[in-house]
Amino acid sequence: MTVIARARTLGELLDTPAYAGRKPFDGQIRLVQDEVRENLTRKLRAGENLFPGVVGYDDTVIPQLVNALLARQNFILLGLRGQAKSRILRAITGLLDDHVPVIDGVDMPDDPLNPVGSEGQHLLEVHGMELPIRWLPRADRYVEKLATPDVTVADLIGDVDPIKAARLGTSLGDTRSMHFGLLPRANRGIFAVNELADLAPKVQVALFNILQEGDVQIKGYPIRLELDVMLVFSANPEDYTARGKIVTPLKDRIGSEIRTHYPTDVKLGMDITAQESVRAEHVAVPPFIAELIEEIAFQAREDGRVDKMSGVSQRLPISLLEVAAANAERRALVGDGEAVVRVSDVYAGLPAITGKMELEYEGELKGADSVAKDVIRKAAGAVYGRLLGSADTKELEKWFENGNVFRFPQSGQAGAAMKATKEVPGLTELSAELAASQSDDVRVSAAEFILEGLYGRKKLSRAEELYAAPEPETRQQRGGRWN
């Protein structure tokens, strides 16, 4: 490609080996879908990672996506928010060539050998082999538009420019008098429409006409644009009823409808969260805390007070981990010791939870903070059950039943906090078992997690940082052993 990249005119381009024997208007058009298919085929044979950073879709979404690309189809990704739809669409640019030649000096990227725009055709006729060309990198061949109800045909396709028509001496119906929208400017590339159902039906029909027939009516003038563009979409199933729908002619022409989903297990979710979160390197996140943060998203998706149609985005655990790590860092900066994330830091991240949950009526009555705290409690109980479900805590529970309470230290040296935990029978030993590190800061985090886990399993009660025996009604629910 280094030799071809030096070509600045059509004549120089035709002197390169890749274009030897080609002639203008020879009809040998390599469509974007063909280009994507060829590069995808090569990567599949080489065993390369097709979509770096996309985790958890290897056996579900990716095979369907590969099939659609091999079949040269336009497609739509259908799924709830926070399911990596936009990331997947952007990753398809990795299947384009590094650079492609286009005619220089025109608004719409056009093939110098087979231009589809009237302006490019005119320049080719005028300049011939001296036609100036430029090289378009793959990053500039991806155009994305977030659909909203106020998007117009002019925004996506274009509009008649009377001033341009007067300057060029053309009629208003001539494509040379058009001001091109986003779709023509994506010629020879990929055009992505996010949240397709939000587009007005008129705009969707214009998209359909361009793709199917290569023509569209703008201000009453029939305009023909046989674009070479790969069109991909994303949409949320909720939008089909809440805000709009995809018109039948367009939906029928979309080759594949591919359903995305949330991570199917906590470990996959943890991988995604660790990959996407941004935090200071010196802040340590113990594995049990990372699992707790991920479990919060899973519990929220199952909670009856949270709107399942809206979903709980994967951005919830990502944002929560970032805020919890920041709180741990702040605590270390004003005190001493390591910055290690604890349960109290997770509670400090409530704003990262409440803003990402759409509540049902029951949840609205209870309040977002209350629902979020309840979700944290359930998550702590679930993770504790997986990690320490078989641990013997009878002596610890008995200590609380005897009327003792324990306020977990939130400041000061980790050594002092560990010393304080020794008054709770068995807590120090359990925290040492859970903590993979011998660091006091990590063991303090483990000790707080253990108490929170017992609270989540309704073996303790909690008021802020104060842990005590479970409430009387909770004891009765657990089988009457407390009577």
UniProtKB/TrEMBL annotation:
Residues 175-237 form the Sigma-54 factor interaction domain. It comes from the Bacteria. SUPFAM superfamilies: P-loop containing nucleoside triphosphate hydrolases. InterPro entries: P-loop_NTPase, Sigma_54_int. Gene3D superfamilies: P-loop containing nucleotide triphosphate hydrolases. It holds the Pfam family Sigma54_activat. This is Sigma 54-interacting transcriptional regulator. It comes from Deinococcus rufus.
